[in-house]
Amino acid sequence: MARQLCNMTFAVKNLGVVKQGTLTQQPLTVLCGPNNNGKTWVMYSLYYYHKLIASLGENDLPGRNLLDLSKIIEIINKDLVAVFNTSRDLLKNASFVPQLSAEQLTDQIQSIRKTFLMPAERAGLHLFYRELGTRRTALLHHASRENIDLGELLRDVIHSRYAMPIADYINWLNQLSENQRNSQGIFHGYGEFLKKELVRGAYTVSLRTGDITFKPRQRKRDGNRTQSMSLHMTSSTVKSLFGLWFYLEKQAKAGDLLMIDEPELNLHPKNQRIIARLLAKLVNAGLNVVISTHSDYIVREFNSLIMLNDERVQNLRKKHGYQEDEVLDSTNVGAYLFDNQTIKPFEISPDDGIYATTFDEVIRELNQVNDDIYYSLQESSDEQ
Fold this sequence. Notes:
Elements: E1 8-15, E2 18-25, E3 28-32, H1 39-58, H2 69-84, E4 95-99, H3 102-110, E5 115-118, H4 122-133, H5 135-143, H6 150-158, H7 164-173, H8 176-180, H9 188-199, E6 201-205, E7 212-216, E8 229-230, H10 236-250, E9 257-261, H11 269-284, E10 288-293, H12 296-307, H13 314-319, E11 333-339, E12 342-345, E13 348-349, E14 353-354, H14 357-383
Parallel strand pairs: 2-12, 3-10, 3-11, 5-9, 9-10
Antiparallel strand pairs: 1-2, 1-4, 6-7, 7-8, 11-12, 13-14
Helix pairs in contact: 1-2, 4-7, 4-10, 5-6, 9-10, 9-11, 11-12
């Protein structure tokens, strides 16, 4: 099995709303916190770092002069503007700095890993990727027929409207037909788990056109199986999870990095627990996983999987239907709170899992409000 990423520390300063903080990447890294606190900014920066390192490993650059960590850092911080496709003023003084020794950096470059990021916009991208991918071709065709400023149009065509991870995901979707020809990989079984437990049906990608269809598993009332349908006719869950299924089925390899922005999107709480178990399976099978999440269900499920790693409660695995490949070693998990313009590590222990107080406070407040309303109504009823 390929080695997983472990104890890789990154220092962040002035990146979006994040003024400062550090995080250490583990085989499973969880980014939590309220909305608009920089989780996606850090995820995208981490994505670019790994993409850059992989490109150095794939290409024997002249002189190998980029092996110097200071030059790697210089490239990352210079390219952040392009990564986010924004103005330089917005990222003034921003920095994303890997804190590695020269030996660690060399080892990473020589151990080529592919990085795959599923953005939060994925459900819509699964439907409109062709239109987004062919926009430039259509504009060029239009320019050949209309009396417009060709120079201005070409600048618009060449300049992407999206952050790099989103643009990369659109390009990946437009290569579905080509990648569909790949044979089933070692993560095929986990794709089958996703189909059985989460979407309850089967995806198909046309080799000729790349069209995506889905066939539900349940039967109709008359006993006939339901027909295949275009992806745009399916539920939001089926749309959202297509990319993860295809990646696991055709492309994932041990040692690679899977990043998911909000894996809980469109999922019922029960399915949020199931996807947490799937992510744990992937980590234990050799994938590196980074997620950002607002889901208390996912974090609490990780807590259970960490505590179930203790042999003293092994009997509870069978009682509650957990598999051995779903339990998590606490030393392979890192979790971070994004709040008040900082990044802070959560405490993680074999006995308690991830001590994510950010969710506890909201749940406690919700319960208090609910109790106050309920008992006030009861008192009013008693007085009548």
